[in-house]
Automatic annotation (TrEMBL):
Species of provenance: Gossypium harknessii
Matching Gene3D superfamilies: Ribonuclease Inhibitor (3.80.10.10)
InterPro entries from the UniProt entry: Leu-rich_rpt, LRR_dom_sf
Record-given protein name: Uncharacterized protein
Domain of life according to the entry: Eukaryota
Keyword annotations of the record: Signal
Pfam family name, one: LRR_8
Length: 63
C-alpha cells in the first residue's frame, strides 16, 4: 500500500520503478507532483482503480 502523500516532496524524482513489489490499493494522487518523472513502472502489483487523468500533465514521462 502506498500512502496518499508519499510523493509530496519528490518533485525532482526522475525514475520510479515499483514493479513486482506486491503493492495493493490505489495509485496516490500525489504522483502527479513528480514533474520530472521520465520513467514509471508499476506492473505486476495488485493496484486497483484507474490511472489518474492528470498523469498527462507529466510532460517528461515517456510512454
Amino acid at each position: 500500500h502506498l500512502s496518499s502523500g508519499i510523493f509530496d516532496n519528490l518533485s525532482k524524482l526522475r525514475v520510479l520503478n515499483l514493479r513486482a513489489n506486491n503493492i495493493s490499493g490505489r495509485i496516490p494522487n500525489s504522483l502527479i507532483k513528480c514533474k520530472e518523472l521520465t520513467y514509471l513502472s508499476l506492473h505486476n502489483n495488485s493496484l486497483e482503480g484507474s490511472i489518474l487523468l492528470e498523469i498527462g500533465n507529466l510532460t517528461k514521462l515517456e510512454f
